[in-house]
Specification:
The structure is a single chain. This protein is an alpha+beta fold. Strands 3, 4, 8, 9, 10, 11, 19 and 21 form an eight-stranded mixed β-sheet that branches. Strands 13, 14, 15, 16 and 17 form a five-stranded antiparallel β-sheet that branches. The chain has a three-stranded antiparallel β-sheet with strand order 5-7-6. Strand 9 and strand 10 form a beta hairpin. The structure holds (2E)-2-methylbut-2-enedioic acid (MEZ). The site of (2E)-2-methylbut-2-enedioic acid (MEZ) has 11 residues, from loops.
């Protein structure tokens, strides 16, 4: 649906201020960035994380008493999908050196490095290989590859500043020092980053960066990275077996208390599959599909926190899950595209955010949590949001100013993904601005892990969004694609070395699940919910009210 007349009228106000805003930018006078104290005041008032009514204490497990969002607590206080007392673990369906749970960027990078270090690998994934947040990442990957004007030192300071200096320093150090090698690795595998005519890599700013170190492939960077490493993994099929449509529903421990595999659920046949492994890499990604506080999300269909749930049951502590990242610019209209990411690369290139009067109200490259909070404030207390035909409020992201600054066709060339998406609604984003609102984007926290990828549970390694600590309380753009590759590679390698040199054999067990159930009961948790949830349920109440099937038979509904 193109913009209706009411919005076209409002766009005129954006156009009326555009020349002035461009002029100001060209003269080097940016809209002033917020001071640290102002940032902190705005975050404390407007960021969704601070809503006390949105959170409660977990009553069980290693982080008992930790206060996080209801949606995550609901899952951590749910029962297993299986009856742990009724399973025969003596005859596994598969045996392998390293089991990787998750088929996105982190899992695939881990598979490659585990294989290179001599391991036989099974990669199990809930949907298809590559159906993951990596595939949907748009704007870029940070790395200080330009040593004449940048270094891991500046990158480190940016990551720590973005995370409000709460990040775990050792993880950050690993992230930034490994970053340039990751870019070289991707290039060697055939990843097509955007380059200048002389062949040097293009880089630009992201929110909260002091140097231009964002590498990108137009606005489909994640898809290009995923294509590259997935092809490579599939080409190593003698050693890497990919099992699709088979999410993990529990970890297996052995009688030494070490991680020793997982139970998978075959989504086609509804069978449970036992995989015995000498080491496991957890790479299940994030949790946007929990729609915390009813926020829309950029995340893929399977982002339901499965890895956090099953590792927590097995005793792995969590951290930083009290913070969730809302990406400032999600589509708020047209409603068919609601929640979809509009890359920060627009703001990195200089596109302003403007209110219903066409006025800029925030510097476009504030860190994400600050930028999102300013947008929420503008649409609520300030009452200068743009009313959408669906009864919501949004803010204009002035993409046409980029065509005016850098030449006609710039937006179409640099942002082909978004240009195509909006053209389906007969909106040319080189000529008309986009309507945005913050959208649930990233799970800042997750499972606790060390810089070598290991966790408190021997034999269990972590990589990517399922882990917490490296980004502290707020991740900066482009450090997620980096995180999945840095820690995917490290965890894959170390899981292989552990599997081949250290792992001890033992009888398989799911005793920890029985213990968890007992703990739930002792804590007085009454629930019929089971977790991991695997897929979100969007069935509306009026539809549920008419789902009258008395008894399900196989797949018949
Ligand atoms: O790291 C991200 O989340 C990212 C690159 C997103 C984007 O805005 O493009």
């Amino acid at each position: 649906m193109p913009y209706p007349e009411s919005l076209k009228q409002l766009i005129k106000k954006v156009e009326a201020t555009r020349a002035r805003r461009i002029e100001r930018k060209k003269s080097g006078q940016e809209f002033p960035a917020l001071k640290l104290e102002e940032r902190s005041r705005i975050l404390k008032t407007y960021h969704p994380d601070v809503k006390e009514e949105g959170r409660r204490n977990i009553r069980v497990g290693p982080n008992k008493g930790y206060r996080i969002c209801h949606e995550m607590v609901d899952l951590l206080e749910a029962k297993s999908r299986i009856d742990p007392t009724g399973i025969d673990l003596t005859r596994p369906d598969y045996e392998t050196d390293v089991l990787i749970i998750g088929g996105g960027g982190a899992g695939t990078a881990a598979a490659l490095l585990a294989q290179e270090n001599g391991a036989k690998v099974i990669l199990a994934t809930k949907l298809r290989h590559g159906d993951a947040n990596t595939m949907m990442a748009e704007g870029g990957i940070q790395a200080s590859t330009k040593s004449w004007k940048d270094s891991p030192y500046y990158h480190y300071l940016d990551v720590m500043g973005g995370g409000h200096f709460t990040n775990i320093p050792e993880l950050v150090k690993t992230l930034v020092t490994e970053a340039p090698d990751v870019i070289q690795w991707l290039l060697a595998l055939g990843c097509n980053f955007s380059k200048f005519p002389d062949g040097t890599l293009q880089t630009m700013h992201g929110g909260g960066t002091c140097r231009k170190r964002m590498h990108f492939a137009a606005d489909i960077t994640g898809a290009e990275i995923m294509r590259t490493i997935r092809d490579e993994a599939r080409n190593r099929c003698d050693d890497i077996t990919v099992v699709e449509f088979s999410p993990a529903v529990e970890l297996l421990l052995n009688d030494k208390g070490h991680c020793a595999g997982a139970i998978l659920y075959n989504m086609e046949t509804a069978e449970y599959i036992i995989v015995k492994a000498k080491a496991v890499v957890m790479a299940t990604g994030g949790s946007g599909r929990l729609h915390v506080q009813n926020f829309m999300t950029t995340n893929h269909y399977g982002a339901t926190a499965d890895g956090v749930v099953i590792a927590y049951r097995a005793g792995v502590p969590i951290c930083f899950l009290h913070t969730i990242q809302y990406h400032p610019t999600g589509v708020i209209f047209p409603e068919q595209a609601e929640g979809i990411l509009i890359t920060e690369k627009f703001r990195g290139a200089g596109a302003n955010l403007v209110n219903v009067d066409g006025e800029q109200f925030v510097f476009e490259r504030e860190p994400r949590d600050v930028e999102s909070s300013c947008i929420i404030r503008e649409c609520t207390d300030v009452r200068k949001g743009v009313p959408t035909p669906t009864g919501k409020f949004g803010i204009w992201l002035d993409s046409p100013m980029l065509d005016e600054m850098f030449g006609e066709g710039y937006v179409k060339k640099e942002f082909p993904g978004k240009h195509i998406l909006f053209s389906r609604f007969e909106i040319d984003i080189g000529k008309e601005p986009m309507l945005i609102y913050p959208t649930l984007h990233y799970q800042n926290g997750g499972l606790e892990y060390q810089a070598d990828g290991s966790t408190q549970l021997p034999g269990l390694y972590v990589a990517g969004e399922v882990g917490g600590g490296v980004h502290g309380e707020n991740r900066l753009m482009g450090n997620s694609l980096l995180d999945i590759l840095v820690f995917g590679r490290i965890s894959g390698r170390n899981a292989a070395l552990y599997a081949l040199n250290q792992a001890e054999e033992g009888d398989l067990s799911v005793e920890h699940v029985s213990k968890y159930h007992a703990e739930l009961e002792a804590a007085g948790v009454v629930t019929d919910r089971v977790a991991p949830m695997l897929l979100p349920d969007y069935t509306q109440e009026h539809v549920k009210a008419k789902q009258w099937t008395a008894k399900y038979e196989g797949t018949l509904r």
